[in-house]
Amino acid sequence: MFLTQSELGQALTKNAKVAFNEGMKMGPTGGRQIYNIKMVTDMITENDTHSYDSIARSTGEGGTYHTSVPVKGFRLIHRQGKFTDSFTTTKEMMMYDKYSVTDTLKGIQGLGTSGAKRLELNLQLGFGMGAGASYTDMDGNVVSTLGADGQNSFSATKTTKAGIAYSNLQAIAFGLAGLEAHQNLFRRMVNHSGRQVKVIPTHIYHTRTPSLVNTIEEFLNSRGNVGSPNMGINVYGYKGPRFQTIEMEYLDANPDETRDNAKANYWGLVLAKGQELQCEISQNPVVYAPLMDTKTRNLNIQTDLHFSHGHRDGFNATLSNV
Fold it and tell me: Global pTM?
């Protein structure tokens, strides 16, 4: 029986939002667990680092008080990008297919997943591609992966306004030596005042490579020192896991979502939701009411989302690109 546009619209209105939201939940989530996400209303925003990290000075009787001033760091500029998807329900499908409403709802669910996947792909490529200056995305656009200091997001020569360099990149396999090496990267970081950055990582992020996933889980949940013949105390696990873990589905991906085997064992430490890992969204994924093409009588259903992301300073994450 022919299903009119009005009838289809009424049927979709009741369930489209549910299907779309369910689709979003089916997408990857690793990037959204890491980035500090906030809603914005402007297409272009600027985010500056301000460091006020003074230390009181000795002052003699009647002496002039020591004066300190905030140090302005580097500026990260966000420009909102627009990402879209759609699908079509044909007139013939509405006429002859009694499951047209169900199939259309499945398509709407797919649109929800589509938007979530693109957001996650871009966020996670900010890590997986972060040791370089840029990459070309699946749409042919050149995407910068530079931090606000003009260096790669992950680099052995990150810079500060104090003129002191630090590193958030070290190629070392996961394990006791690797964890200590990356903890030392955090310990040696300095802010724009030239003072120690007091940042404690909360998570280990990593690819989904089974051997790496299992090694990390074993390491964090063993009382004994994994890999040691004497099985000494495992300081990262004997009181319970010191770090939580985040699996990143696209950490070892190419920009077209294919797998890059050279990145199979990428991992790092991160302060999840740290202020330096920024994602700004001006419009969350949304599904629009079906529109009829007057030339074909087909129904077109669309979704879009608007967001930007970037790494301001390198204080919140390290990367092992081994």
Answer: 0.89
